[in-house]
Write a structure and sequence with these properties.
Elements lengths: L38 E5 L4 H10 L9 E5 L1 H7 L15 E6 L6 E5 L10 H11 L4 E6 L7 H14 L5 H27 L8 H17 L1 H5 L3 H18 L8 H15 L7 H13 L1
Parallel strand pairs: 1-2, 4-5
Antiparallel strand pairs: 1-3, 3-5
Helix pairs in contact: 2-4, 3-5, 3-10, 5-9, 6-8, 6-10, 8-9
Length: 291
Amino acid sequence: MNKKLITSMVVLGITSIGLSSTTAFADEKVKGEGWDIPSVALGNGLTEQQKLDTIKELKVKDSEKYNEFIVDGNDLVKYVTDVPEFTPESKAYSSAYIVRTKEGSGVNVTIETPDNITARTESSYRNAAITSGVYDADIRIASVKTMDGSGALAGIYKIYDEVEPAKSEEEQADRDAKREVAQEEMAVTSEITNENADNKNYSDENLAVAMADIKLELQKINEKLDKMNEADAKEKIADVVNKEMKNQGLEDIVTPEQQEKIVNLMYNFKNSPSINDKEMTEQLNSLKDED
């Protein structure tokens, strides 16, 4: 996995915008054959020829049957809150392919066109997918144009909502809360990667492992954190963040200001449904093993 340069269009900070959802609640598959076949999300800005070229870049076989979705400006606004410049009129170009894999296999992401995805890395896509609740999947990302990769990210979320719609308002609320934390994390880690684009001692894979370890540790000590007030809880989280930054050789790379953003992010993670998600624990461990 090669480190990608993060462009200036990624917001350098945490955006806390709640995600609204128009997904209908249902107990059955709503598109094609659900997870039994792969799904592809294509950007609405693509011409018909570019769609065909993108499908080829995503390595979809000619004979392969798949669900197809289109990502538009409304999806960018709904799902990609770390880029507040998006409007309903925005066009998406980068695209995503997802196929579910056996239980416990984890999330694997491959950017098939690395030169054309400037603001997202394989590690960031994986972390975002896992934090938002997308588990056990092979994900491919591609773009026939040089883009930041937000269309593909929105595509991952849209596929999940369309193929496996929430069964209740409570489940949808949990899903939205997880995604909000995932987008906050994307903004913070993108800033760190952007500022270290020319630093040979920096690895976004190491940062991804550090973030996974922090979440795993917070899951272990969550009962203790729940008994603390906000100030004490953040102090304890800061200790965990400092420890994991050192374990990954990032203590002299991630600035104190950035570490503070990570602490605030992880405090939000502690207060999200993700903190008690046992399946997320397995997926985070799988992510660490791969890196």
